[in-house]
Amino acid sequence: MATFISSTLMSTDHTPKPASAAPHAGDVVSAFPHKHLLGIEGLNPLEINYLLDLSDGYVEQNRQANKNKAILAGLTQINLFFENSTRTRTSFELAGKRLGADVINMSVATSSVRKGETLLDTAITLNAMHPDILVVRHGQSGAVKLLSEKVDGAVINAGDGWHEHPTQALLDALTIRRRKGRIEGLTVAICGDILHSRVARSNIHLLTTMGARVRVVAPPTLLPTAIERLGVEVHHRMETGLSDCDIVMMLRLQRERMEGSYLPSVREFFHLYGLDYDKLSVARPDALIMHPGPMNRGVEIDTVVADDIHRSAIQEQVEMGVAVRMACLDVLTRNRRAHASEALS
Ligand code: NCD
How confident is the model at residue 317 (pLDDT cuts 50, 70, 90)? Predict the structure, then answer.
């Protein structure tokens, strides 16, 4: 169910802050008392706002000529990707490097998993190398949590099956908050392949927790059963689903996860659910267009709409992604760094 958020719980000052003004060491335990970031479900508004406030500082830092701040110097970050990824892996790599971590990328094509090693063997082997942080993407829902139970370092879920993709929801929230000044009270329409989308699930948890009104817009075949239980309104037509909404969040049609016939044809899907100016005309005139990427142009979104610099925040989402991941790496390694500096003094 949607959680009603009292405005007193929400941080109201959303003006971007420099990284140096971000909250510091001692407050992290109470502000974000989690060892891992496995999902958005279960986080509260204060924790979400804490990560977003910190991310605002990193957005400013990333726009400076010198983008580096070596707070993770000496720490090792392993990006362990069992599924293909370009933008998410690059974003995590850049985030770790800008904070001074030693970043290693491991993808399934080069790993022993191909030779029959199980996920847990991989976890135990990597753990013996003492990584401080593991960023993990896996095709099975729940696999990242399982791995987190076997390692000593902090684990960030970079997408597990159809389940969650928490840093995507955080970067979407940061984009919305910076553009609209708030999340609470906005109407957000999440459209397209909801069934296969971890991005949709993480966004639903985050946006309802922060007091937004969330609609899902999709054909019945691309909606999970009982999705209303997550506190969303269900629409099967773009015309009603997009009516007066503040944010239109399009999703990629995940054809690689589809077995059987979910759609009559891709052309038919574009005709009924593809975002074009005609369908957009019922949304608020200042409605923001978002897409997590990679886009199927002409399938879920018209190419002209995607590239409309006045309406589309798609490039900004990519920029926010690096800042959000820096904030997550910062927060999750802060207690370790605090202990390390105590040991040195
Ligand atoms: C998303 C993902 O992998 O879940 N993409 C991403 O993180 N860049 C969305 C998608 O693949 O459609």
Answer: very high
